[in-house]
Amino acid sequence: MRWPLPTYVSDITDQYGTRRVNELYRRGTLDDDPPDFPASYDELRAAAHEAMSPEGLAYVHGGAGSDETFERGQDFSAWRIVPRMLRGVESRDLSTTVLGQEFPVPIALTPLGIQSLLHEGAEGATAAATADVGVPMVLSSLSSTPMEAVADALGSTPRWFQFYWSSDERIARSFLTRAENAGYDAIVVTVDAPILGWRERLIERGYYPFLEGDGVANYFSDPAFRDRLDAPPEEDTEAAVEEFLDIFGDASLTWDDLSFIREHTDLPIVVKGILDPQDAELAVEHGVDAIGVSTHGGRQVDGSITAIEALPEIAEAVGDDVDITFDSGVRRAADAYKAIALGADLVMLGRPYAYGLAAGGADGVRTVLQNFLAEFDLTMGLSGREAVTDIGRDAVRHESTLVPTVDRSSRP
Ligand SMILES: Cc1cc2nc3c(=O)[nH]c(=O)nc-3n(C[C@H](O)[C@H](O)[C@H](O)COP(=O)(O)O)c2cc1C
């Protein structure tokens, strides 16, 4: 374990939300120094869209096919928070325990590949911001920056490595070893992307970033990958890209293949992309340590159940056997609060930090995280919960359980 926590992390506890809004109000009102970035997700997204290249925008925005799952997945409104009053919420505690490690907050950054398309600072900027705030980060296999460099930028901040299979076992093994050596605390195996979904924005542009050598830094820096090449990627990028396309992913995988990862790493394993309770049970049977409920942000199966719709049954199916991580559609603190109430142990932010990065590099990501955590702290306190561990199933109700409004127009 890489604790004790750096000092900035303890700053997140102790009325974090109240202190943050007070600071923002005072800076704006007394020092004429209003915030640099919008607080609202919609406005931040608009600012980011403005700042991004058309290719970056096509890569990050939307989902697969008609965007139905992407759009619907952002709607958590069927669940309503039920606040409780007068319960003494002065010393709020945002910490939680995931995979046996204490996390300062129940929020982490979900893996987003090719961050160079969002901002020139790429994963290094994200890592610097997340280290400042003390929020754990999950790094994608498809990062624009090698995993070792990102680990350096993260300092002592907890980090997990998201693992994409390679059809060449030596590369897969090498990734697991490198991640462990670079101090990653867990392996997140993404199982919902054995092949890429139908992404119309990319298809319409005829744009596939890997063909330009973007997002392949972990491969180009990998000894097992380089062994396959006649010339190093620095000399013949085109051939190296073709080799990457050859070995990336493996659609033949089944549950039994998880044993390969177990054999080659001692780190805990998180399986990301689970939407069916039967798969959650299979994951437990196959010895994973945590289940990631996710639709990949609606980018894989258009028309699928959304993550927040899938979560309650999955939580019920696995009980306390394993931890649950949750992502897809989380835009605001209330979304995270609802997911925790429905059984998530760790909630992952995706597009909000992508837009922070695109709009303002490390400063943008830092602001997104600080605002999100402040809003979460206020939501928790105002809902009558003093600690994340107090947010149980009774903290929310589904709209179907609410008494229907009487339709007065139909009265005689
Ligand atoms: C631009 C982009 C890149 C992504 N890259 C990866 C990746 O490399 N590996 C992975 O497991 N998931 C990846 N995802 C999925 C995210 O980890 C996460 O499931 C998704 O962003 C959640 O949806 P949201 O951002 O709309 O909340 C990516 C998502 C986006 C938007």
What does this molecule look like?
The protein is of the alpha/beta class and 412 residues long. It has a single domain (11-390), classed as TIM Barrel. The protein contains 17 helices and 12 strands. It has helices at residues 7-10, 16-30, 41-51, 54-60, 68-72, 122-133, 147-154, 169-181, 200-205, 217-220, 223-227, 237-247, 258-264, 277-285, 307-318, 333-341, 351-382, and strands at residues 79-81, 96-98, 101-103, 107-109, 137-139, 159-163, 187-190, 269-274, 290-293, 323-326, 346-349, 396-398. The strands form 3 sheets. It has an 8-stranded parallel sheet with strand order 4-11-10-9-8-7-6-5. It is globular and about 75 Å long. The relative contact order is 0.19. Mean pLDDT is 95; it is low at 1-8. Flavin mononucleotide binds at residues 59-60, 110-113, 140, 142, 162, 190, 272, 294, 296-297, 299, 327-330, 350-351, 354. Flavin mononucleotide binds next to helix 4 and helix 17.
